[in-house]
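Hey Z.,

So I finally got round to the zinc ion thing we talked about over coffee. Here's the setup:
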Amino acid sequence: MSSMGVLKGKPVDLNIKRLHLPIVIKTNCPTCGHENEEDLQVSNLDYPCTNEECIMEQYCYSCDCRYNIDYLLTLDFEYKVSEDE
Ligand SMILES: [Zn+2]
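And the result:
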């Protein structure tokens, strides 16, 4: 695979509403300290952007508040010409 990396570092609007990923995000609530888990295969990222810092909102299952999590989703795209065999 050639390493063209044509999208590397460039912000891309994926134009999709929900993105599920095999990632579990564990954060501590800044208000009460409770550890919250969010499984992104069950829940999702809303309107994800890529290659730039984004914010998702986390609900605290202990004190009923909401807080922000900064995340960075990076996307590279590589391509090459393949030969038929
Ligand atoms: Zn809390």
